[in-house]
């Protein structure tokens, strides 16, 4: 039975929001020193260079002294109030001898690169840096996510993909949130929109949020290959590395699979795990990602039975995944003890540091089910045979052709036929066999020749 503190925690979390926010990390801000090839923001003695053929939208927050600035053919500065540039007369004593510094290229920054996004459950968490871990497919904005580009920044992102459009719930740019496709299309056609978004695919807004309390499939499985092409995987050091659904690399850690029914609330359960377990000192270093996934179902690993919705809980904690395995066991115990009130019907665990307890159990269930199905088919076949619906083939149908005599050898007639075999077998029928012209039947080397008096009064000949 669920304890009182657990009950209070559960009911307090029922109203938790299910929306996810995905924030773009890179920017093209002038004050960001990582955007300059020398690793520092230019000062009054420096020559600033923007490559002529590159398109760029640069956000400027303050006033900057410059010696010289070489501008691109197509670009813009977005200036906050009071920001700008001025040329220093003479040398800037705080700048050194001066160098030529170049603004870095941002053309290669791809929308489908999961390392360039941050995930949070709320806008408040996004602002405070309380980010969530996700598998690679779900690190990229899902169909029902709110996409956020930082308010005081600009950017350039390549949206190219194998599909014509990228659907999301909303997009926030420079503090403006677009939920209407007509308004967002108008922004994309503006000078800033063309400089910030480029590529063969267009981002579209207006998708509804995830309205299923048990969660929604991300929808990025169609982009899985493109997403993984941006990832370089390290070699795992554990004995039994795992590959979570939607992830590009083998990892050391643990995976808990949650089976659920109507009444399960994903966000409520996520908050429960965070409060009950991740707040404990021994689990604070663990990265935990939780989402609904579609898993292929196969009979005995061969016959496809379609897909089923499951909750995948992925836990990572360093090279060997020992703490992840311990947390996974705690989560499974909690699900077995209190799962009924949360809509959980079962839980399985896979660990990179030990045998797959849930996986081996699933294999046993699969084998038992396969044997049961085979026995059922045999019983049904026996009933159909008994009722005469299905007839078993006789042995004569399977007579081996090798039993036939060689051509040219003695012919085995099988049994005597008094009509067509030896004349001595029917001596009481006159003129049946003989050599005269009126003989009814005669035998030659190649056939039996007879006259049928019923169908041919003129004794028309038939050859068999």
Tags for this model:
five-stranded mixed sheet, four-stranded antiparallel sheet, disordered N terminus, alpha/beta, single chain, 464 residues
What secondary-structure arrangement, pairings included, does this model have?
Layout lengths: L3 H9 L8 E4 L22 E3 L5 E6 L2 E4 L1 E3 L3 E6 L4 E4 L12 E3 L14 E4 L2 H6 L7 H4 L6 E3 L8 E2 L6 E3 L2 E4 L2 E3 L2 H8 L2 H6 E2 L3 E3 L19 H5 L24 E8 L5 H13 L8 E13 L3 E14 L5 H21 L1 E8 L5 H30 L54 E3 L4 E4 L9 E3 L1
Parallel strand pairs: 1-10, 2-5, 2-8, 3-6, 4-7, 10-13, 11-15, 12-16
Antiparallel strand pairs: 1-9, 13-14, 17-19, 17-20, 18-19, 21-22, 22-23
Plain-language structure description:
It is a single chain. This protein has 9 helices and 23 strands. It starts with a helix and ends with a strand. The protein has a 5-stranded mixed beta sheet with strand order 9-1-10-13-14. It has a 4-stranded antiparallel beta sheet with strand order 18-19-17-20. The chain is elongated and about 105 Å long. By secondary structure, the chain is α/β, with parallel strands linked by helices. The chain has helices at residues 4-12, 123-128, 136-139, 181-188, 191-196, 224-228, 266-278, 322-342, 357-386; strands spanning 21-24, 47-49, 55-60, 63-66, 68-70, 74-79, 84-87, 100-102, 117-120, 146-148, 157-158, 165-167, 170-173, 176-178, 197-198, 202-204, 253-260, 287-299, 303-316, 344-351, 441-443, 448-451, 461-463. A hairpin with a 4-residue loop joins strand 21 and strand 22 (448-451).
């Amino acid at each position: 039975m669920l304890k009182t503190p657990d009950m209070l925690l559960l009911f307090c979390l029922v109203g938790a929001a299910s929306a996810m926010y995905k924030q773009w990390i890179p920017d093209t801000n002038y004050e960001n020193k990582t955007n300059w090839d020398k690793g520092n923001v230019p000062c009054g003695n420096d020559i600033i260079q923007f490559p002529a053929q590159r398109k760029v939208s640069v956000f400027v927050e303050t006033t900057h002294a410059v010696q010289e600035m070489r501008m691109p053919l197509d670009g813009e500065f977005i200036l906050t109030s009071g920001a700008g540039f001025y040329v220093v007369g003479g040398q800037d004593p705080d700048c050194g001898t001066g160098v030529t510094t170049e603004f870095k290229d941002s053309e290669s920054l791809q929308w489908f690169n999961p390392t360039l996004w941050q995930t949070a459950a709320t806008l408040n968490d996004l602002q405070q840096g309380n980010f969530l871990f996700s598998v690679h497919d779900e690190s990229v904005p899902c169909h029902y996510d709110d996409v956020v580009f930082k308010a005081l920044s600009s950017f350039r992102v390549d949206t190219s993909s194998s599909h014509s459009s990228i659907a999301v719930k909303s997009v926030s740019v420079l503090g403006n949130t677009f939920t209407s496709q007509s308004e967002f299309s108008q922004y994309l056609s503006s000078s800033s929109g063309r400089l910030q978004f480029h590529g063969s695919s267009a981002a579209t807004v207006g998708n509804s949020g995830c309205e299923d309390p048990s969660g929604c499939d991300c929808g990025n499985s169609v982009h899985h290959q493109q997403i993984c092409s941006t990832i370089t995987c390290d070699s795992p050091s554990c004995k039994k590395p795992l590959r979570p659904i939607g992830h590009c690399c083998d990892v050391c850690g643990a995976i808990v699979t949650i089976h659920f029914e109507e009444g399960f609330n994903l966000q409520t359960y996520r908050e429960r795990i965070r409060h009950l377990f991740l707040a404990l000192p021994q689990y604070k270093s663990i990265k935990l990602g939780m989402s609904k996934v579609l898993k292929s179902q196969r009979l005995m690993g061969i016959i496809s039975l379609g897909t089923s919705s499951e909750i995948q809980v992925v836990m990572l904690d360093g090279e060997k995944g020992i703490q992840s395995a311990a947390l996974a066991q705690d989560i499974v115990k909690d699900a077995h003890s209190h799962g009924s009130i949360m809509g959980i019907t079962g839980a399985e665990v896979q660990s990179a540091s030990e045998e797959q307890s849930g996986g081996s159990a699933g294999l046993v269930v699969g084998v038992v089910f396969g044997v049961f199905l085979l026995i059922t088919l045999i019983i049904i076949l026996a009933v159909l045979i008994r009722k005469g619906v299905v007839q078993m083939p006789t042995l004569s149908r399977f007579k081996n052709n090798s039993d036939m005599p060689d051509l040219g050898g003695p012919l085995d007639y099988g049994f005597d036929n008094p009509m067509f075999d030896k004349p001595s077998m029917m001596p009481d029928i006159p003129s049946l066999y003989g050599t005269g012209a009126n003989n009814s039947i005669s035998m030659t080397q190649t056939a039996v020749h007879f006259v049928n008096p019923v169908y041919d009064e003129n004794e028309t000949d038939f050859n068999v």
